[in-house]
Amino acid sequence: MKKLTIIFAVSLFLLLSAINSYGQSKKITVPLRFDFYYSYEQVVEALKALNKAYPELTTLDLVGKSEENREIYALTVNNPKTGDHLSKPGVYVDGNIHGNEIQASEVCLYFLNQLLTKYSENERITRMVDKNAYYVLPTVNVDGRYHFFTDPNTSSSNRGLRRPKDDDRDGLFDEDFMDDLDGDGNITQMRKKDPYGRLKTDPEDPRLMVPVEPGEKGEWTMLGQEGIDNDGDGRVNEDSEGYVDGNRNWGYNWAPPYVQSGAGDYPFSGIGIKAIANYLYQRPNIIMVYAFHNSGGMYLRGPSTKDQGELLSNDIEVYDYLGKNNEMIVPGYRYLISWKDLYATYGDFTDFTDNIIGSYSFVGELYQSSTETYSPPGKTEAAEEEDFFRENRARSRERLKFNDHVAQGELYVDWKPYKHPTYGDIEIGGWVKMSSRLPHPFMLQDLVHRNAAAVMFSAEQTPEITMEIFEKTKVGKDLYRVRVRMANSKAIPSMTYSAVRKKLYPQDMLKVSGNGVKVVSGGRLTDVYSDRVTYKEHKPEIQFCQVPGFGKIEYQFLISGKGKVQFDFTSRKAKDVSKTIDL
Amino acid sequence: MMKRLFRFIKIPLILGFSMLLCLNWISAQNPSNEYNRYHTPDEINSLLGKLNKDFPGRTSLTQLAVTPAGNKVMMLEIGPDAGKSARTVPAILVVGNPEGDVPISGEATLFLADLILNGADVRTDMTWYIVPMLNPDAVLHYFNKPLQRDTRNARPHNDDMDDRVDEDGFNDLDGNGIITQMRVVDPLGEWIPIPGEPRLMKRADGNKGERGIYKLYTEGVDDDGDGKYNEDGPGGVNIGITFPHLYKPNTPDGGAWPGSEKETFEMMKFVYEHPEIAMTFAFGSTNFCMVAPRGGRKGTADMDNIKIPERYATMFNADPDKSYSMGEIMEMVKPMMPAGMEVSESMIASFLGLGAVVNPLREDLAFYNELTEKYKEFLKEKDAEPKRLASQSAKDGSFELWSYYNLGVPTFSMDLWTLPEVKKEKTDDSELTIEKLESMSNDEFVALGEEKITAFLKESGAPPQYNGAMVINMVKSGQLSTKQMAGMMKQMGGGAAEKDTEGADPKEKALLAFSDESLNGKGFVDWKEFDHPTLGKVEIGGAVPYVDNTPPESMIDSLLTLQVPWVFNLVKKLPELKFVKTETKSAGSGIHELTAWIQNSSYLPFPTAMGGRNQQPAPAILVVKGDVTFLSGKPRTTIGNLEGNKSIKLSWIIKAERPEDIILTIESKNVWGDQKQINIGGVK
């Protein structure tokens, strides 16, 4: 008896450790580790630890609070010696706007970890840090992440914001959540033995089920997600949290819930979302944005709906350059267009950043479950038609073998009997919440490094403007012709073409000034060789411009007078640059 | 002695007492405040505060938002729930002056609150949320000098996207305290004065051989020397166009996003926190009481004719060239969903990217049109035949459109006053004109009769000493022929009926007519020369701002008294759900069939068709309470859409062990419900 008790106690201990194996008890140290998933509290701890370890380079920003009063933090990385953060191009990275898409925060933490721990050790990273201002907000949906870790979930649940909504229109709010009937911390599937069922056991893997042939005797009926009918209305789990999707609640091209499911009542009804919008709006220097999600393995650009029409071709060029390189940095990920290759979304985050902040934005859909393979070298499984909602059977079988032999069974729970209050004798089993949309921790390191590297590639391409006064000719008594060139050695222009076209904010400016001088005329030099200038009629001493990526623009001025002349290029996104000459 | 005294004072006493009673009755119908002038934002808020103070038990005052200039958006709640946290009755939201440039609408909102509190004939089991000014910064413009029509709040905004913010606004160059227009002779000028009314101008039509003379500017100088005049004045955002439905991004006065201004955001937040709001009413520049909200926009998703994009069509086994109804598509999608996953219309609509509704739904237009007829009758009864210019259509991003399309509740509005229509010029063939006179014979002329001739002379502006009788004598005696007369009249300048005002904007004509006839000409500043610092010789003149939508103060009270009470008629139309009949049938062994018939006993549907489409209004639930088991049917049943004066039938099969009292309740936040108690027998 005693032996049995000991065995029982040990098994219980092991079981509990297994449940905790995703790191709830790990200690946070710098450099950060990436072999486990950070709970909400651990993400905050990690940011604080980085801030504490690198006080001169970082600032901890309390962006706001969530519906359940949790704090949303961002970390600013900026080298004050190379300028104030608002004076430099801004790179903004966030993740986990959907509460279940957790590995996005790890990517953000890894990115920070790289920038900070390798500063002054790695030349390229040092230059990257000195050049830009970085705003990294690892967890947008803090309530979602918290509940995803703490509560039983599927890999897709706890996606939305904690804003009560009467989804099933019965007058009650959020009254029928999922239920973890077998108490294993996961919401899996329920099935029932049923001779009239349309499914039968898969001959290859008894955990799977396949449709019966016409006329064949059935075996199983799928009942759906683990749960009971909490509100007695005949439906199971039909009114859980929300449903308000944080990534449909933004103020650009927002549409109400009957048009866009999950939009929320009005733009920025989400408390945390509104706070982040204000945080961004106060950082108008942001020119590059990455928002991480799962899953699928994609880098998506906008527009998010077809009715907006295609982007300007010059902006597409910038996206193509960055996107195609991302495909090579993270093999298997595809660079795609949001509305076209995925689906239309109204009121999403990157449409907001593109059209209101005036940035280039990517959505990174992290992880492909197709990497969970179990096949001999050189052989590829027959490509059965995969539909949008369910993976094909061959893939499922392979993933289960991967689960068995590469993940030691940690991704899948086998079917076990259970007595259900309404359905009677059923079985419960399926993929655990920490599976399918995110990598087993042993694959996490590769995922975070490659995706952080993609962000770094873009960060290195933020505009770098140089100014050259390449000609000064006397054309009369105290009258000079001066030619100025602004050049950009990087791919990202000083302003998106869309922002210029829409007059989103005042354009970049070239200002000419001096105490003893007067600008008689000035304009864009469109052809140096034939002296073709497009003159500005009024106030020629202020020229509105935009410096293209990998390109230049030139201006010509006729200046009268004597003494010092100062040329100031000012830009919201690019770093300002000035030059002075003597007439 | 006392008895004699009493008899003495008996009659005066009785008289006095009855008078007191009468006065009390009269004052119970009259508003507390006076409505004989336009009040500033501070005064409006103070009057609102006074109502709150005078009626403490029935009202509560809330501050919704503070504007960039520090003005307050205040709300007065009137009703039985005032001051309490629980919301027990349906509510109406009344919003005044969303664009801020209609002074009389703020007065109307206050007037409405006043009437409600002072004994208006309207039910008391409801809440009124009254917001007299949604855009107080803009309301202030009416009271500032120089006078200019401006819908923008005080948010600094770089309208021309140059290097400075709010650096070039209007300037009152001629010092008359009014911002009007400037016209400058310019070779590129497109405008010419209208021959019949040279105060007004029209664009020159080259095809007619007209050559433009003037360029038009608003009064001011080019403060920032960029070649543009008054292109970046102080402010700001027009709150009246910042609501989410059909909101236009990237405009000079639309704000950064819908709700980027507190005035808008806090209003929306309040509305969604108060699902008991069953109707909205806006006093502003639109009039949904007079004319239904307009349609004709492109792009509505028609739920009966949906085309499935090709890449989904194969997935659904559908034909991309065929049109399907939403119901058909849902049937196609359901089997493909993972077991237990709910499929809703909204999910399908957003997945397929179907887009928003942008035109009023047919079923809703039915009640709007019916009610406009009733409103016109209502005005006729009061002898008011408003032949005034048409009200404005609701703008994209307006409060009114957001209320109809996003909230899905009956939405009404009223604009109180527009310029009277210009009397139609006589084009009737039988009427006399100078041309006709010229071609007439003397005898034909005389045959017209004295009355017609007198009228003609008067209209033509003939000198007063020439009356009909005199002229007839002159013609009869041969002193004057028709041709001579016509020639003389032409020389005199034609007269009012002959004015060639072709090409004039009808609104401008109406303004001028009203200004001349009712404002002593003060509605229009005559063109006067001025030496402009950069433009040289200009003329300054033009319509005075607000004349076209703000009647003289003496008219306020009568306009409000006439029109505002229509709101109470609309309240009477709000849906009400009642049990028309309930029935139990015993099937033995304690099993009973319970049936209830529920009727919407009022006129308006519950919800509107748009509310049915967007699923936004809170549903009504029929709750069956009692110690019973449900064999068929559920304790909570959602009552679906119920049109006005229609009924539905719901039934349950229940089992009761003992005789039970079952309570049936129609529960809803935003509609008046009902309750019924039924006794059933139990096991026999």
Tell me what you see in this structure.
The complex is a heterodimer of chains A (583) and B (684). Chain A is of the alpha+beta class and 583 residues long. Chain A is 25% helix and 27% strand. An eight-stranded mixed beta sheet of chain A has the order 1-2-4-3-9-12-10-11, with helices on both faces. Chain A has a five-stranded antiparallel beta sheet with strand order 15-16-21-18-19, with no helix packed on it. Chain A has a four-stranded antiparallel beta sheet with strand order 8-5-14-13. In chain A, a hairpin with a 2-residue loop joins strand 15 and strand 16 (479-488). In chain A, helix 7 (313-329) runs antiparallel to helix 11. Chain A starts with a helix and ends with a strand. Mean pLDDT of chain A is 92; it is low at 15-22. A six-stranded mixed beta sheet of chain B has the order 1-2-4-3-9-12, with helices on both faces. Chain B has a four-stranded antiparallel beta sheet with strand order 8-5-14-13. Chains A and B meet through strand 8 and helix 9 of A and helix 5 and helix 8 of B.
Keyword list:
heterodimer; A: 583 residues; alpha+beta; 12 helices; 25% helix; elongated; B: 684 residues; six-stranded mixed beta sheet; four-stranded antiparallel beta sheet; 29% helix
